[in-house]
Amino acid sequence: MKWSYRIGSIGGIPIKLHLSFLIILLIFIWVFAVNDIKIFGIILGFGGLNISIWLKYLLSAIVSVLFFTTLLFHELSHSFVARRYGTKIRSITLFVLGGMAQMEEIPKEPRKEAKVSAAGPAFSLCIGALASAIYYIFGPVNLAASGATLKDAALIVVGIIAFYNVILGLFNLIPAFPMDGGRILRALFATRMSYIDATKKAVVVGKSFAFAMGLFGLLTLPGGVWLILIAIFIYFGASGEERATIISVTLEGVKARDVMTAVPNVVYVPPDMTLNHLVDVMFRTKHIGYPVQEEQSSPVLGVITFGDIRQIPASKRDTTRVEEVMKREIITIGPDADASDALILMSTKNVGRLIVMKGGQMEGIISRTDLLREIKFLGKE
Predict the structure, then answer these.
(1) What value does the mean pLDDT take over residues 258-269?
(2) How many Å apart are CA 295 and CA 117, to the nearest integer?
(3) 3 state SS of 98
(4) Which residues are catalytic?
């Protein structure tokens, strides 16, 4: 089942909605429709208005969509600043815990990383401040009146946008890596130590915040369930970011040609080979993926892996040929490309190997195993 759906693009950046986003959207609509909580003079819901329940839910739906639109622009702010520094933005996805901009790599220069990280909270706080000013200038909302006016409804909409954007901006500034505040903290650490050490220190701080947040969530159940979910996201997100950073930094300066298996040592298979024969080749060579060629100097026709073979019943493998099963889409990379880019491309395309091509000719093949072996080797130096 497909969980994320592209709904459009802004500035060339694909925008996706995860199905889990519908959960939080419906919860927000319900909360705004039934509540009239007042915090700092701002009424956060339409429950106290003297209007029909259906109109309350309609207004709640409108303000929920408006709030998540500002959340989307929070992520776009990160993306536009990152793109100025040459970072490619794969997409922005809205899901149950908010939004996430998927960047190929955040700039490692502390000043640039700090600017990228601060852009989102800065946008949210600016929107929150502007909406707050409008609310306090034209307010207050009069819930005691016999009938609600359009002005009252509009002010509640503005107040909700104001309050939750301020909360969003301040919450993201908590120094819990990999949240925005944690990335700013890492950038600060990186001015005084290596990038890997700065990441490790920021991860420790982030996990400490996650633990405290999760504990507080447990003590405040059932309302604290969202804090528990966010704490889990922070904890595992920090661990993942730490691994990704170590890999990225370790592979700096390493090119695809330095890691690849070069021609003529690349094992290829002809298109007319049967799958049973190919299984025998796999046992002998200990590889699970091969380029498909008529001969080594011929163009690459496709790629076949053990996963492709498994899709064919064992009873048919003796008569099924490689060319009938192989993937004809060939994912390639240049020999002078960074090895870290190769790893990113493998993760993006969900493949285990890339064909290294130059001038239309295969120069070698690079696998995920090759890259992990190189990382392990360099990490011991």
Answers:
(1) 92
(2) 50
(3) strand
(4) 75
